[in-house]
Design brief:
The radius of gyration is 24 Å and the shape is globular. The chain has helices at residues 34-38, 46-55, 63-66, 68-84, 92-118, 126-150, 154-169, 179-184, 188-201, 229-238, 240-264, 274-298, 300-318, 331-357, 363-380, 391-408, 424-433, 439-442, and strands at residues 6-9, 17-20. Helix content is 62%, strand content 2%.
């Protein structure tokens, strides 16, 4: 693209400029992009994209309504269909509609699948399941680079993405529903059927004919039934332990995603093309998720989150020291890279921690609400570096956010190696068991 760009003032009181497409523009005609085709620059499309992405997560408490398996398959099919429509997209409003539906489908597919499988995995393997799923997430970056580098028309990129989606979605039809979920909504017979199928696959004999499955161990009188959305909201107020833990999680999601997306956008300064930048992001996240295996194994969930947030806080404070040893490298850049790894590790860990803290009856609702907090932070993240021209102010803000998150996570219990709760009442019992109702116990750093 050549020089001679037209700069036009925005209407209203602001004087910030935007770019308009002009006849003096010279584009590389060998490849097409959405931005070029629809003349999307700066403020012109921000509001529409903001509303489309945020809308994508609203109302997704359906994970707890229609079940993990149904939500996952429905979201996957929706994402596949609307992505294919990208081949026929011929206007910006059409693309906004596609993005809204993609957001709904992709989040429903990924989040419900994560919960679905998490409820199958034994406690001692959850660490590896979580780290493996995050590593696959990171591998999406080089996959995107490969597709977009060799396919020069963005319409056909949608078709290529559909091919990848199909390969990922086929196994979903082979797995049965989560027995935990089925039991939490009072479908004990279906839960028995699923358990017997798995026993058959494992070559084990399992006779549940005369067995009564219950939500809480040893309490045969308690059989769960489906909770409506209003009943779930009421349970947050009734069980204060659940409310406290979920509010801390929501703040943690907001902070980790604000810093995750803000810092990861900083990778753009390392490469000279978007392809190289995405590969840097993939390398950084892969390193973080490998580190995550050790963190969760040896530190647990609670101390792992405190370690990641606290370590990032220290990095941001150290980065305020002015020390430049080459034209490219200085202390701020070095400690920011360390902070990226720590925040990426926290990003991967908070998925697992949320799934283990939230009870089965509320797990889908809690993850959806957490995603709303994360989505809001994701919009703000890339603008963190624009808060002030003074880098020390930006670093101080990041340090304050990560430091307060680290302190708040002292309020949460450890979940490593423990059974995940089934009901809101189980959350209250867990806090009593770990003696987290007094300050002295809360401030103990128990690793495990």
């Amino acid at each position: 693209m050549s020089a001679d760009l037209t700069i036009v003032p925005l209407p209203g009181p602001t004087t910030a400029p935007i770019l308009e497409k002009d006849t003096d523009y010279v584009f590389d005609t060998s490849r097409t992009t959405l931005v070029i085709d629809y003349d999307l620059y700066c403020e012109k499309s921000k509001l529409a994209l903001l509303s489309s992405y945020y809308f994508s997560d609203t109302g997704l408490y359906i994970f707890d309504v229609i079940g993990r398996r149904t939500s996952c398959i429905a979201g996957s099919l929706l994402n596949l269909i609307v992505t294919f429509f990208g081949l026929f997209c011929d206007s910006y409003p059409f693309m906004v509609a596609i993005r809204i539906l993609q957001g709904v489908g992709q989040f429903s597919s990924y989040a419900s699948c994560y919960i679905w499988v998490l409820e199958f995995v034994p406690a001692k393997y959850r660490n590896y399941y979580n780290s493996w799923s995050m590593l696959i997430w990171a591998m999406g970056y080089p996959g995107l680079v490969l597709i977009s580098y060799f396919i020069t028309n963005w319409h056909y990129i949608h078709v290529a993405a559909c091919g990848v989606f199909i390969l990922n979605y086929v196994p979903l039809f082979l797995l049965p529903n989560s027995p935990r979920y089925l039991l939490s909504v009072g479908k004990a017979d279906e839960a028995k059927s699923v358990l017997q199928k798995y026993a058959k696959v494992a070559g084990k004999k399992l006779d549940l004919t005369d067995v009564t499955l219950t939500v809480n161990d040893g309490d045969e009188s308690e059989k769960a039934t489906y909770l409506s959305f209003t009943e779930k909201v009421a349970s947050f107020w009734r069980e204060k332990a659940l409310l406290i833990e979920m509010l801390v999680l929501f703040y943690g999601w907001f902070v980790v995603c604000l810093l995750f997306y803000g810092l990861n956008y900083g990778w753009g300064s390392f490469g000279d093309t978007p392809y190289v930048n995405y590969l840097y992001v993939a390398a950084g996240e892969t390193l973080a998720y490998l580190f995550l295996i050790a963190v969760t194994k040896y530190m647990g969930r609670r101390f792992g989150m405190i370690f990641c947030f606290g370590g990032a806080c220290i990095c941001f404070f150290v980065g305020m020291i002015s020390w430049q040893w080459t034209d490219v490298w200085n202390l701020e850049r070095f400690v920011s890279i360390v902070a990226i790894v720590l925040i990426s590790c926290a990003f991967g860990l908070i998925f697992l921690y949320t799934g283990e803290l939230a009870p089965t009856t509320h797990r889908g609702t809690v993850l959806s609400a957490s995603s709303l907090c994360a989505r809001a932070a994701g919009f703000l993240g890339p603008f963190v570096t624009d808060v002030s021209e003074d880098s020390r102010i930006r670093l101080a803000i990041c340090a304050l956010l990560s430091g307060t998150a680290a302190m708040l996570f002292f309020l949460l219990p450890e979940t490593r190696g423990r059974a995940i709760p089934e009901t809101a009442e189980d959350v209250t019992a867990r806090r009593k068991e770990q003696d987290l109702n007094n300050v002295s116990s809360i401030m103990k750093l128990k690793v495990g």
